[in-house]
Amino acid sequence: MVQIEQHVWGMTPEGEAIIRYTLRNDSGAEVQLTNYGAAIVSVKMPDREGRMADVVLGYKHPEGYFFDGAASGKSVGRCANRIGGAAFTLGGKRYALTANDGANHLHGGRAGFHAKLWTTAALSDSAVAFTLRSPDGDEGYPANLDARVTYSLDGRTLRIAYEVRADSDTLCCLTNHSYFNLSGGREKIYRHRLRLSSSAYLPVGDDCLPLSRDRTAGTRFDFAESRPIGGDYDNSFDVDGFDGRLRAFAELRCDATGISLAARTDRPAFQLYTGAFLSGAYAPGDGVCLETQYPPNAVNTPFGPVPLLRGGETARSVTEYAFGTF
After folding, report:
1. Cα(232)–Cα(107) distance, integer angstroms
2. Are strands 234-238 and 175-176 parallel, antiparallel or unpaired?
3. How large a percentage of the chain has pLDDT more than 90?
4. Averaged pLDDT for residues 212-237
5. What is the pLDDT of residue 125?
6. What are residue 89's phi and psi, to 5 degrees?
7. Among residues 126, 159, 150, 127, which one has the least CA distance to residue 323?
8. pLDDT of residue 47
9. Which of 36, 100, 138, 280 could share a disulfide with 134, CB 3.0–4.6 Å?
10. Taking residues 124-131, what's their average pLDDT?
11. Handedness of CA 284, 118, 250, 315 (dihedral sign)
């Protein structure tokens, strides 16, 4: 049984209400969400001793989310990750996007989905759903698009379901940008042990755009066996066996607390990011992202598949983060 509470957490500069939702259940799990950026604010799970630990980075006050370059816990879109040259061609037409990462476009632009106040569409016994209308030309993208993100809590599993629909062809790939730290902030994530179901990754240049698709075996990107993260990463990895169905792709463990995280997705790729660019309230290594997505800049490279959303079609995707102890 999940209990859901809601209250006004603050106001946007425009005077709109920012709502915080708290989901709790009998398994000891607690998740806090907000309609600003359709974000995860906190995830509290019991450690091996039964003590509660907040295992994602977040802010105590809503103002922390207004100018948050880290997009902590937020739903990012229209298109997660980078698009080189802040432009792409679709249907023979060239589209110029907002350049917000040097010459490139990152996570939907300066005023992407992470920086918008979403509408709370539904509250059920175990879920909260947020919706957003993105108009034609939003940050340069074509088509009017409707997005829906639903968070549900089943035991100690947090499920994120995405649903998008556009009135003409466009690019779209939403993801969640939570930074996990299973120690509850007691240590950096470099000591966390990670195992990945991925035999290929995308090396990147200085601009963080992919250069090739390489095998992970025998490299520092090889996490076929569980081992400490040990250093910084900001790379896209293929999900082995991708076929559009839900597949396990990562397992994260913290020896200090005995908390584990098993991640599943129906997406073809995920970004492993250890927060090298974190600043302000948080520092590099304070959290690690497992962002389910399509390969970055796939529309301009041979490293696809491309996150193409056909007009009139509804696309759905699911990511699950299952917590446990060992």
Report:
1. 20
2. unpaired
3. 96
4. 98
5. 79
6. -115, 130
7. 159
8. 97
9. 138
10. 91
11. negative
